[in-house]
Specification:
The structure is a single chain. The protein has 442 residues and is mainly beta. The chain has 5 helices and 19 strands. It is globular. The N and C termini lie far apart (46 Å).
């Protein structure tokens, strides 16, 4: 009895750590947080002490032109069936000049104790035009990454499920790569981003099958999402890939582009184009186009209506691997992301495709005054909402789910979901949403 209670306590503690972990895009917002401004971290002489290598360290220049963060290894600890237990850290160094132009140096690393592999990445990023939001970065890496680049299941949740439920939903591959990216405001309310990446990609297999509990009639699946029972069968052969990405976001009737995604007053149009270039030893050759529109309609006292619609497909597909397929923001765990475009019960890889596809996400947010009409929620500060998610892949495969939910302080959500798909069984269940899983564009 004590073992499950101990594991739950560890999970909740780790959840709190993940909620306050540092993100290289938005590290500035943490500079005044309790985590990085406590007396245990800020030392009078600014020197790094040994105990801070474990607890985390930060140093701020009094002029406000320099910041240094060393992320505690406690934020990166995890477990999966490919790497086994892994542990790492990250270093962020921010510098501003007199023109408020920002330079970021970022490096992280981790070690997998079962596959005995060191993972690392290093980034140099320069924001040189604040008015137009223009920046560029260069990145090098040698990493074990999720096949779905949306990373639909967080490392924390996957570690929890692997250790306690004998479920290894996350599937991985090994990538050694170099990437260059450039982002700028092309015109009023239009943000552009382009990137080029050269990578060596290699399939990996499970190296460990340990779980704290032995669940009856449940076994770990292989790391091949196409054939989860095909142990020892690689998903693809090792190869090189040269990939070009172009993205554009247009904010309708706006004077400028805003990176804030939630509660858009005007529609936002998004275009993503990705091309595999068969050159310089790379073998992939395809053209993938994706279009989306999202927005929010405020009905004042009647609540609000949010929507996100998307469609796309492969214009050409001479040669691609499963890594290059269109993957969706799926979820099979109890915990779900709160972004509207995330599915609640869609299997992670069953609908991955190189065919045409369309998706629809609708959500109606009830006005708080309406919730006061119900005795169970009156005076508790809950907000109610209901929604539907739909996916069409090619002509024959569909998935649909409907849900109702309650939210508290826009941080925690409890949802009741019912779903059905042509490639998976009818499901009903509960989902819990945390805003710490919410992602941001650009």
């Amino acid at each position: 009895m004590l073992k499950p209670i101990f594991i739950v306590c560890c999970f909740l503690w780790a959840l709190k750590l993940e909620a306050t972990s540092l993100n290289d895009e938005f590290a500035d917002s943490y500079s005044n947080s309790k985590l990085y401004s406590s007396s245990a971290v800020d030392t009078t002489d600014g020197s790094l002490k040994m105990n801070q290598l474990l607890s985390g360290y930060s140093k701020f220049d009094t002029s406000g032109k320099e910041k240094l963060f060393i992320v505690s290894p406690l934020y990166t600890i995890g477990y999966n069936t490919v790497q086994g237990a892994f542990l790492g850290t990250a270093i962020h160094y921010h510098r501003w000049n007199d023109k408020k132009q920002k330079t970021l140096y970022y490096a992280d690393g981790s070690y997998g104790f079962s596959n005995k592999m060191v993972n690392f990445s290093a980034v140099y990023k320069r924001r040189y035009d604040n008015k137009k939001g223009a920046w560029y970065y260069l990145k090098l890496g040698n990493e074990i990454l999720q096949i779905n680049d949306y990373e639909p299941i967080s490392s924390l949740i996957n570690s929890w499920l692997t250790l306690t439920q004998e479920l290894n939903f996350a599937k991985f591959y090994h990538k050694q790569y170099a990437e260059a990216k450039y982002s700028f405001e092309f015109f009023k309310a239009i943000a552009m981003q382009t990137s080029i990446e050269y990578a060596n990609r290699e399939a990996v297999s499970n190296t460990i099958a340990y779980s704290l509990f032995d669940i009856t009639n449940r076994y770990f699946t292989s790391n091949n999402p196409i054939n989860v029972n095909g142990l020892g069968q690689d998903l693809f052969s090792r190869h090189n890939a040269l990939t070009l990405k172009l993205s554009a976001i247009y904010q309708v009737r706006q004077q400028y582009y805003s990176r804030v995604n939630n509660k858009l007053k005007q529609p936002r149009l998004t275009l993503h184009y990705k091309k595999g270039i068969e050159s310089f030893g790379a073998i992939t050759n395809f053209d993938h186009l994706d279009l989306a529109i999202e927005g929010n309609i405020d009905f004042k006292l009647m609540g609000s209506f949010s929507y996100n619609l998307g469609a796309g497909g492969f214009l050409t597909n001479v040669n691609s691997t499963f890594i290059d397929y269109k993957h969706f923001r799926a979820n099979q765990s109890l915990f779900t992301r709160m972004d509207i475009e995330n599915f609640k019960m869609l299997e992670y890889y069953s609908y991955s495709t190189t065919q045409n596809y369309a998706r629809l996400h609708l959500r109606y947010n009830f006005n708080s005054s309406l919730m006061k009409q119900f005795s169970l929620t009156r005076g508790m500060g809950f907000k109610g909402y209901a929604g539907i998610n739909f996916l069409q892949v090619d002509k024959s495969n569909q998935f649909v789910e409907a849900y109702v939910g309650l939210s508290k302080l826009d941080f925690l959500r409890l949802e009741f979901v019912s779903s059905y798909g042509t490639l998976q069984h009818y499901l009903r269940g509960v989902r819990i949403g945390f805003d710490i899983f919410t992602e941001s564009e650009f």
